[in-house]
């Protein structure tokens, strides 16, 4: 018996839902590597004999596998295993582990958020500006990471483009280096002076958006994020030196 035929041997315990049981068996063979991209599945008749099921059950199972993007049927030729679908990008605590990871995210943010600031300065409403001002006040009062995240999300919302919001929301607290590492401490920087510089940078962004000056908003955001990257780079060098 060849490997493909062996992959279709019925499970020891018959599933109450025969079609779902067949889907699970074929899916397991695909994920386990017994069935590889490009392999042709046995004919309906062969699968029916192997699993003791009807043609209707086989066709229902194949339909489910097609909907899941696991196989493709070419009429008159057969059903073939597809390349696994690409996994969506997910940035989480599991994927952001090092300062180098946070530096890479900052590079992404420089490209993304400088344009968001430009659009926000062009499109923001008075209500959105007021919400940014409230978040800025919270940042000034305590340097809260939560308020910092909110400030950046509010700018994304003011673009009127939900995709900016979606991406920054997915990044979550990972968009703020202070949420991952104590940058001031690692860079041997005075915490009060560090927060004062960060606060001034936020104020420059807010002032430009308030004036509806897109170019100044873009420049202020780029300065803020580039400075954040430089502060984090120095922190990384400090760690490397200590090691």
From TrEMBL:
The keyword DNA-binding applies. SUPFAM superfamilies: GntR ligand-binding domain-like, Winged helix' DNA-binding domain. It holds the Pfam family FCD. Keywords: DNA-binding, Transcription, Transcription regulation. Transmembrane segments: none annotated. InterPro entries: GntR_C (IPR011711), TF_FadR/GntR_C (IPR008920), Tscrpt_reg_HTH_GntR (IPR000524), WH-like_DNA-bd_sf (IPR036388), WH_DNA-bd_sf (IPR036390). Residues 224-243 are annotated as: Disordered. CDD domains: WHTH_GntR. The keyword Magnesium does not apply. Residues 16-84 form the HTH gntR-type domain. Residues 227-236 have a biased composition (Basic and acidic residues). GO terms for molecular function: DNA binding; DNA-binding transcription factor activity. This is FCD domain-containing protein. It comes from Pseudoduganella rivuli.
């Amino acid at each position: 018996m060849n490997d493909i035929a062996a992959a279709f041997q019925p499970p020891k315990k018959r599933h109450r839902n025969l079609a779902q049981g067949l889907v699970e068996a074929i899916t397991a063979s695909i994920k386990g590597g017994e069935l590889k991209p490009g392999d042709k599945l046995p004919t309906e008749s062969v699968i029916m004999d192997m699993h003791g099921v009807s043609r209707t059950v086989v066709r229902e199972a194949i339909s489910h596998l097609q909907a899941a993007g696991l196989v493709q049927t070419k009429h008159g030729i057969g059903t073939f295993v597809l390349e696994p679908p690409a996994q969506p990008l997910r940035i989480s605590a599991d994927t952001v582990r090092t300062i180098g990871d946070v530096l890479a995210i900052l590079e992404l943010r420089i490209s993304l958020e400088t344009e968001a600031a430009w659009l926000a300065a062009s499109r923001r409403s008075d209500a959105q500006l007021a919400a940014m001002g409230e978040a800025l006040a919270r940042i000034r009062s305590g340097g809260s990471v939560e308020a910092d995240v909110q400030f950046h999300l509010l700018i994304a919302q003011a673009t009127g483009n939900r995709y900016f919001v979606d991406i920054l929301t997915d990044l979550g607290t990972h968009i703020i280096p202070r949420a991952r590492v104590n940058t001031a401490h690692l860079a041997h920087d005075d915490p009060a002076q560090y927060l004062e510089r960060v606060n001034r940078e936020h104020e420059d962004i807010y002032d430009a958006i308030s004036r509806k000056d897109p170019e100044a908003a873009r420049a202020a955001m780029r300065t803020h994020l580039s400075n954040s990257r430089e502060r984090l780079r120095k922190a990384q060098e400090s760690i490397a030196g200590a090691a």
